[in-house]
Design a protein that fits this description.
InterPro entries: AAA+_ATPase (IPR003593), ABC_transporter-like_ATP-bd (IPR003439), ABC_transporter-like_CS (IPR017871), ABC_transpr_PhnC (IPR012693), MetN_ABC_transporter-like (IPR050086), P-loop_NTPase (IPR027417). By secondary structure, this protein is α/β, with parallel strands linked by helices. Helix content is 38%, strand content 23%. Helix 5 (119-131) packs across helix 6 and helix 6 runs parallel beside helix 7. The structure holds adenosine-5'-triphosphate.
Length: 270
């Protein structure tokens, strides 16, 4: 269904994504891992068409995406929603209006200018917030919510587009372990319950192992690993992170696992 072929992005002399190819033949949850500067964000931005490719192509269900322009490009962007590390909400606007912004690509300029939303869209926005466990905050300003809650608002805004694919660029990098777990659980549920493809850039191995069906490891713009989490041996991880013999997975941990262990221990003593 999704075919990335010889995709390349150059910024002047620097090649951020270097001739990468992969195919996704069913909706699954994919983790893209690698150290800072490996090219993960640039890959997602090209997939969503926030950035143009220098070379290569992306096709989705047989349709060429890389060259789409104007309204067709916007239509693709609503089928392929993006979530960012910094949430990208409008801080002073209430939560439900932020979620309704997810329909912007489908609305007229007039409706957008005057903030006119159909009742059915407002009901849907509340339903989505409810599904993500934050409906009670619908009328609050986005800036009044915690980081984890704001990221769930951003996920709700993405779901409002009813996308086939959700691209998440470091969605938990700004969150504490507990909120990181809540956000990753939400993304996993959206994949499992709705059958949407989720592609998630992650800094850390443990999160990729725990949540993803497939892991793509990038180093210096190239794919150096592509397989199931079980195949991600210490040697493979070392290769991805360009580390020596002293490489320890702990250094790339988000501590979600540690959080679970703490909860288990607390439960044992309760
Ligand atoms: N707009 C840009 N102009 C110039 N160089 C860029 C631009 N965007 C990214 N790069 C360079 O491309 C390379 C890959 O960057 P990218 O942000 O894709 O990596 P990343 O793996 O997502 O890293 P991080 O985890 O730190 O976000 C880096 O060397 C970066 O400096």
């Amino acid at each position: 269904m999704l075919h990335v072929s010889s995709l390349t992005k150059r910024f002047g002399e620097r090649t951020a994504v270097d001739n990468i190819s992969f195919t996704v033949d069913r909706p699954c949850m994919i983790g893209v891992i690698g150290r800072s500067g490996a090219g993960k964000s640039t890959l997602l931005r090209m997939m969503n068409r926030l950035a143009d490719a220098s070379d290569g192509s992306i096709t989705y269900e047989g349709r060429e995406i890389t060259g789409l322009k104007g309204a067709l490009r916007r239509e693709w962007q609503s089928r392929c929603a993006m979530i960012f590390q910094q949430f990208n909400l409008v801080p002073r606007m209430d939560v439900v209006s932020n979620v309704l912004h997810g329909t912007l690509n489908k609305r007229s300029t007039f409706a957008t200018l005057f903030n006119l939303y159909p009742q059915s869209d407002i009901h849907r926005a509340i339903e989505i917030l409810d599904r993500l466990g934050i409906a009670e905050h619908a009328s609050k300003r986005a800036e009044a919510l915690s980081g984890g809650q704001q990221q769930r608002v951003a996920i709700a805004r993405a779901l409002m587009q009813d996308p086939d694919i959700i691209l998440a660029d470091e969605p938990i990098a700004s969150l504490d372990p507990m909120n990181a777990q809540i956000v990753m659980d939400a993304l996993r549920r959206i994949h499992e319950e709705d059958g949407r493809m989720v592609v998630c850039n992650l800094h850390t191995l443990d999160t990729a192992r725990r949540y993803c069906d497939r892991v793509i490891g990038m180093r210096d713009g190239r794919i150096v690993f592509d397989g199931e989490p079980d195949a991600l041996t210490t040697t493979a991880a070392r290769d991805i992170y360009g580390a020596g013999d002293d490489f320890s997975e702990g250094a790339t941990s988000t501590q979600i696992e540690a959080l679970d262990r703490t909860e288990l221990a607390a439960a044992a003593y309760a």
